[in-house]
Write a structure and sequence with these properties.
The protein is built from 15 helices and 13 strands. The chain is α/β, with parallel strands linked by helices and about 425 residues long. Helix 1 crosses helix 15 and helix 8 packs across helix 13. Pfam families: Glyco_trans_4_4.
């Protein structure tokens, strides 16, 4: 720990915060936890626990200076009638009501804790809007953590009500000190979208895995010598994660006599079997090769990754500029990886140096890759914790700490210049 007189304070604006159970919560969680060892105290502005659809208390919460939880509603849930809601009620996102309570609460936090920097994080546009309003009223430097591009920038289905979200994005890029993304592809996209901004405004801090999480796991047993288990951990949805090609690959291998219910199973953890998927499995005559399992805690999902024969990642062309955060958990688990993703995607590039990985998009190529995995079946981990350390959350937090120091120094320089100090 640094001496109190040299420490600085960060105000984090984040909707997803422990105990929220979501794919992206680990980024905020671990930044909040590890920044303290880099001389930063953290104040968090978030929502009340009941706003979250699912909670996971197993991983704990970081010990930060202060957490302010504000009231909000989930418009898609709380304004729905018989399971349906009006599209415009979720503009710019489902949690727009959070701004009504968070902006006045944030101003009080700034007056009380006197933070040096504001940090806000997507994929909730409202978080950036809150930070924008707080930055405008306080004049503090602000880092906008976009992670991935605004959804309407890559998903045609999200463009109907995108006007307000784009306006928030425009204000964010204009007024933030730095905009941070998780891939080079995404950062370059925004450089093209906002050519009037300096290139150095757009930075990259990738996602990662947390070694502390893996240390908490009970020792996993050896990989099963019976059925080969291919595991997909997480949700399936739309064009971006459509499993149809992998199902057709299983059908081809079954027809070739290479797969049956005794030697193989594809497990989908944490997603429900939709009627359309079940109909397709029946049509392809592979229902006995696929199972859908209920969600488990985050730590239990990591344990399951360690004991799988191989891990399946679905990241279609819609997400070419993005890398799912679970890829880094997959890498740390050290199991072979089969990725249904285009060769030019950010995900494929991230996997290029991994020792036993296959990237393919069509059924026959996926079938060939899976056949190779079956032939090369290995119980040993492909990477050691030391080899994977470059992807750790500790390393990512060091990168964020450096950016925080940079924007603080730039802000101080501007203040001195405006006041006439330091001028010869």
């Amino acid at each position: 720990m640094m001496p109190a007189e040299t420490r600085k304070t960060l105000l984090m604006v984040a909707l997803d915060y422990p105990p929220c159970q979501s794919a992206g919560v680990q980024r905020t969680y671990k930044f909040a936890q590890y920044l303290q060892s880099y001389g930063w105290d953290v104040v968090v502005l978030t929502v009340k626990e009941q706003v979250y659809e699912r909670c996971d208390h197993s991983a704990g919460t970081p010990d930060v200076l202060h957490v302010e939880r504000c009231a909000a509603i989930d418009a898609a849930r709380d304004l729905a009638w018989r399971g349906k809601y009006l599209g415009f009620s979720c503009v710019p996102d489902r949690w727009w009501s959070w701004a009504l309570t968070a902006i006045p609460a944030g101003k009080k936090l700034i007056a009380r804790f006197k933070p040096d920097v504001i940090w806000s994080t997507y994929p909730v546009s409202t978080a950036h809007f809150i930070a924008y309003r707080l930055q405008q009223s306080s004049g503090l430097p602000w880092i906008a953590d976009y992670r991935d591009p605004l959804q309407c920038r890559y998903d045609p289905s999200a463009r109907r009500y995108s006007g307000l979200a784009k306006w928030i994005e425009k204000q964010t890029i204009k007024h933030c000190s730095l905009a941070v993304f998780t891939t080079d592809n995404a950062a370059k996209l925004y450089q093209r979208l906002y050519p009037q901004q300096l290139l150095r405004k757009f930075r990259v801090i990738e996602n990662g895995f947390d070694e502390e999480n893996f240390r908490q796991l009970a020792a996993s047993g050896p990989v099963s010598a019976e059925r080969f288990r291919l595991l997909h951990s997480g949700a399936l949805y739309g064009d971006g994660r459509d499993p149809t090609p992998i199902f057709r690959a299983l059908s081809l291998l079954k027809q070739q006599g290479k797969l049956n219910a005794q030697n193989f199973v594809l497990s989908f953890r944490g997603c429900q079997a939709q009627p359309g998927i079940m109909a397709l499995l029946s049509e392809l005559a592979i229902s006995e090769l696929v199972e859908f399992l209920p969600g488990v805690s985050y730590l239990d999902s990591l344990t399951e990754m360690l004991s799988a024969d191989a891990l399946l990642l679905l990241q279609g062309p819609l997400f070419n500029n993005q890398i799912p955060s679970k890829l880094y958990d997959y890498i740390r688990a050290g199991r072979p990886i089969l990725a249904m993703t285009p060769a030019q995607s950010a995900t494929a590039r991230a996997l290029a140096a991994y020792p036993q990985q296959y990237c393919a998009m069509v059924a026959d190529e996926l079938a060939a890759a899976l056949a190779s995995l079956l032939d090369e079946r290995t119980p040993a981990a492909l990477v050691t914790p030391t080899q994977a350390a470059v992807y750790s959350r500790h390393s990512r937090t060091a990168e964020l700490a450096a950016l925080l120091t940079e924007v603080c120094a730039a802000s101080t320089s501007v203040t001195l210049s405006e006041s006439g100090q330091g001028v010869a």
